[in-house]
Amino acid sequence: MPAISSNKPYRVGRSRTGLGLFATKPIKKGAKIVRYFGPLLDSRNKKHEDIENKYLFELNGRWTIDGSVRKNVARYINHACRPNAESDVSARKRKVVIRAIKNIEPGEEINYDYGTDYFKAYLKPIGCKCASCEKKRKKLRAEQREKKKRAKARAERKAAKAKAALNGHAANGKLLNGHGGKSAVKKMAAAKSTIFATAKSGNKARRASA
User: Fold this and answer.
1) Pairing of the two strands 95-100 and 85-90
2) C-alpha distances in angstroms, 199 versus 17, 93, 131, 206, 210?
3) Got the DSSP string for 108-123?
4) Mean pLDDT, the chain, integer
5) How far is residue 79's CA from residue 117's CA, in Å, rounded to a whole number?
6) Strand-pair partners of 90
7) At CA 69, angle to CA 66 and CA 72, rounded to 5?
């Protein structure tokens, strides 16, 4: 970790994505925070074609800053979809300065938008870890939990209604003595009538034969 002068308005510290740059003093909107610097790479130089790292800052089609050098404190500034700073690029001067676009309070992490190309290449595949995206994911997880909770409650209410309806049918189909209900009573009465009728017919037949 590079040594930073105490009169600088920032320090390197732990962030949710590893290391980050944090304000140690109030930084006003529009103020210059730090310069992003390093060796200049020329796209026309074949020796520079094989240089590849995540700290390359493209100025234009020809010039790129290799910000991987240790003294480049700006390389610790993380990406944010809703940043409090921005990169002020001067391709003519081959220079990049990070400026505040909001008032930044001591303790706040300094961040800027890395741009669409970098986001698609490095951040989107693994998921952006900035505070804004984390907040969205947290809200989405809460909504999904609430959705599952409501679905579970509906299923429980449905099961309770089905159980109550089943118990109601069972109660209507039983007598106090444990025999069948109204339908069973009707069947028993019909059976008794048939038995009596059969017995009566049998008696008549026996008398006739006698």
Assistant:
1) antiparallel
2) 96, 122, 92, 11, 17
3) PEEEE---HHHIIIII
4) 83
5) 13
6) 95
7) 95
Q: 137 — phi, psi (to 5°)?
A: -65, -40
Mean pLDDT, rounded, for 194-198? 55
Q: How far, in Å, CA of 77 to CA of 113, rounded? A: 10
Mean pLDDT of 127-132: 83
- The residue type of 72 is N
Neighbours of 118 (CB within 10 A): 16
Whole-number pLDDT of residue 68? 94
Strands, sheet with 32-36, edge to edge from the N-terminal-most edge strand: 32-36, 95-100, 85-90
CA distance 128 to 75: 17
Q: Nearest-CA neighbor of 109 among 191, 174, 21, 46?
A: 21
User: One-letter amino acid identity for 164?
Assistant: A
CB 67 within 8 A of CB 74: yes
Q: Taking the model in full, what pTM does it have?
A: 0.65
- Residues linked to residue 41 through DSSP beta bridges, in sequence order: 64
Report the percentage of the chain scoring pLDDT > 70: 79
Please report, as a single letter, which amino acid is at residue 78: N
The DSSP code for 77 is: P
User: Do 37 and 96 meet the contact criterion of CB atoms below 8 Å apart?
Assistant: yes
Q: How large is the average pLDDT for residues 138-163?
A: 86
